[in-house]
Design brief:
Distance between the termini: 29 Å
Helix content: 10-25%
CATH architecture: Roll
Number of domains: 1
CATH topology: Thiol Ester Dehydrase, Chain A
Radius of gyration: 15 Å
Order of helices and strands: HHEEHEEEE
Length: about 140
């Protein structure tokens, strides 16, 4: 997909900012590995303290990871001062995760002035564990 705008400086700043703002992204230790125009690669560990009593990563952790990636992927391609809010997302949990690193790849598949849609695929040990798609509302700065 082609984008009218790509702010490389925003992308560079966001690479190291996954845990800089605190909150759930810090608690779950999301890491941004690469951010280019319309594409984000991010990681999170399936830590012991995030596992259910059955030994699997709680689905809410993957859901939070999807939501995080859904928002971040848009920032370098929207106007300066604009921000995004998740409107909705749907995910399919494909197989349980019990250890290792989860790798998310988020790709923008549609972008207008007011909304965007992205697909997020998560793997663990090179196996698909989650397939998701979501929509964001783009809030432009007030004139």
């Amino acid at each position: 997909m082609e984008f009218e705008l790509f702010d490389e400086r925003t992308a560079e700043r966001m690479l190291g900012a996954a845990t800089a703002t605190g909150g759930i992204s810090t608690y779950l230790d999301f890491r941004h590995a690469a951010l280019t125009a319309g594409r984000l690669e991010a990681e999170m560990d399936a830590r012991q303290d995030l596992l259910t009593p059955f030994g699997n990563l709680h689905g809410g952790c993957l859901s939070a990871f999807v939501d995080h990636c859904l928002g971040v992927v848009f920032y370098p391609v929207i106007p300066k001062g604009a921000w995004v809010a998740t409107t909705e997302f749907k995910l399919n949990l494909l197989r349980p995760v019990s250890s290792g690193v989860c790798v998310a790849v988020a790709e923008i598949i549609s972008l207008t002035k007011r909304s965007g849609v992205a697909r997020i695929d998560i793997t663990n040990n090179d196996k698909a564990v989650c397939a998701a798609q979501g929509t964001v509302t783009i809030v432009l700065p007030k004139a």
